[in-house]
Q: What sequence folds into this?
């Protein structure tokens, strides 16, 4: 069995009086892709934000055998957790290259030059489009290119765990296919990924395991291939539409 990279026990998140995540348990093994699907407002982004420490949570989160409770966002990122947020959070007035370098600089520091160069080469291999457009301002990229840049920037930190929040949101089907192709390549390269997606079909196709989150609770979990065949999932999340 693969090594456990992340263990979440009894996770609870409240916004004021509202409980947004409750009793959430999750184990993520090294090198696997975990898909989390669920309706709008279910708490999917909240879960990813809680894991990376962008919002406060109660419960136990263990990463690589270490409890994360006392680690803040920066320390969790330094420990190897990277989030590509729903908003992408790119610097629109900076070039593609500067966005990538900033991703590295913040966590490797000014003396990480060679490592940054190596990372950059790997990222350009994965996304040749980013190399072609390295001098273009991030704010002028297309939706798909922005998503590639957001992924590339997260990869500059060489994360052990990549949290992806709706990578296909707002993208045309063909661009979505490209982005999922890139995620498949990352999986092949051994990156561990938690993938939150509205596009349940594409997410389950790429994932090892899937979980359904509804109103803050995991209501269904299992091997992704089985969930993709589950009548409850098909009816609610896959429909009859072909995507
Ligand atoms: N800062 C906040 N303060 C109060 N409530 C919040 C806050 N952020 C999120 N919520 C609420 O928490 C619930 C879960 O939100 P979350 O963004 O995690 O859902 P989601 O599953 O990612 O939805 P979507 O698919 O629309 O992105 C929603 O009801 C949302 O309105
Ligand atoms: Mg969300």
A:
């Amino acid at each position: 069995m693969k090594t456990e990279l992340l263990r979440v026990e009894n996770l609870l998140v409240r916004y004021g009086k509202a409980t947004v995540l409750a009793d959430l348990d999750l184990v993520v093994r090294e090198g696997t892709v975990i898909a989390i699907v669920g309706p709008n407002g279910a708490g999917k982004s909240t879960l990813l934000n809680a894991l990376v420490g962008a919002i406060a949570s109660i419960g136990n989160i263990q990463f690589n055998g270490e409890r994360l409770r006392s680690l803040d966002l920066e320390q969790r990122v330094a420990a190897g957790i990277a989030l590509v947020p729903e908003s992408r959070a790119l610097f629109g007035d900076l070039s593609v290259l500067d966005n990538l370098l900033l991703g590295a600089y913040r966590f490797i520091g000014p003396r990480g030059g060679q490592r940054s160069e190596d990372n950059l080469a790997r990222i350009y291999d994965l996304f040749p489009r980013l190399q072609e457009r390295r001098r273009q301002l991030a704010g002028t990229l297309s939706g798909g290119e922005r998503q590639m840049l957001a992924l590339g920037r997260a990869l500059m930190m060489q994360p052990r765990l990549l949290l992806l929040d709706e990578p296909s949101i707002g993208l045309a089907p063909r661009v979505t296919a490209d982005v999922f192709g890139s995620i498949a390549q990352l999986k092949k390269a051994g990156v561990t990924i938690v993938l939150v997606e509205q596009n349940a079909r594409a997410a389950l196709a790429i994932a090892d395991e899937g979980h359904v989150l509804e109103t803050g609770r995991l209501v269904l979990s299992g091997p992704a291939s089985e969930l993709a065949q589950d009548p409850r999932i098909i009816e609610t999340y896959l429909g009859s539409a072909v995507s």
